[in-house]
């Protein structure tokens, strides 16, 4: 159809320059229709390429985020294991201290206090008080139900 412009020029010119270019040349309706079709297809092709690029960038960013989250998770799991180990050690130390304190405590007659009847209460000021435990509620004896088959 003898179009006086390159496809690259048709597709890449800004709208105002493109319209100005078309108005400067005497073109038939068929030529104008073809030029507009070339521009539309070219713009669509560029938009599709940009869309695919954005999609790949998004995927790469998400993969990087997933890797970071996996590293964070493994670090947090290691920290959790270490904290649990520390808690277990602290509980053992508290239990040892508890037993040592009860081993040294004596009532007015010189008898040791029973850990089952008394408890130690720790104050926020560092004080330790010996308090009687509340009596345990009486346990109900649960009866075993026999399976009766009919």
From TrEMBL:
The keyword Aminoacyl-tRNA synthetase does not apply. Residues 141-150 have a biased composition (Basic residues). InterPro entries: bZIP, bZIP_Maf, bZIP_sf, NFE2-like, TF_DNA-bd_sf. GO terms for molecular function: DNA-binding transcription factor activity, RNA polymerase II-specific; lipid binding; RNA polymerase II cis-regulatory region sequence-specific DNA binding. The keyword Transmembrane applies. GO terms for cellular component: endoplasmic reticulum membrane; nucleus. It is a single-pass type II membrane protein; Single-pass type III membrane protein. It is found in: Endoplasmic reticulum membrane; Nucleus. It holds the Pfam family bZIP_Maf. Residues 34-97 form the BZIP domain. SUPFAM superfamilies: A DNA-binding domain in eukaryotic transcription factors, Leucine zipper domain. PANTHER family: ENDOPLASMIC RETICULUM MEMBRANE SENSOR NFE2L1, NUCLEAR FACTOR ERYTHROID 2-RELATED FACTOR. Belongs to the bZIP family. CNC subfamily. This is Endoplasmic reticulum membrane sensor NFE2L1. It comes from Hirundo rustica rustica.
């Amino acid at each position: 159809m003898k179009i006086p412009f390159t496809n690259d020029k048709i597709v890449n010119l800004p709208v105002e320059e493109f319209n100005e270019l078309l108005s400067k040349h005497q073109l038939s309706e068929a030529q104008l229709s073809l030029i507009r079709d070339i521009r539309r297809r070219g713009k669509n092709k560029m938009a599709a390429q940009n869309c695919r690029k954005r999609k790949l960038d998004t995927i790469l960013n998400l993969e990087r985020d997933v890797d970071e989250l996996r590293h964070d998770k493994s670090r947090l799991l290691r920290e959790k294991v270490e904290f649990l180990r520390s808690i277990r050690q602290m509980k053992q130390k508290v239990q040892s201290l508890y037993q040592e304190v009860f081993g040294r405590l004596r009532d007015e007659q010189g008898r040791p206090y029973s850990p089952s009847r008394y408890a130690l209460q720790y104050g926020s000021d560092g004080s330790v008080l010996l308090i009687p435990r509340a009596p345990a509620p009486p346990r109900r004896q649960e009866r075993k139900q026999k399976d009766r088959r009919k």
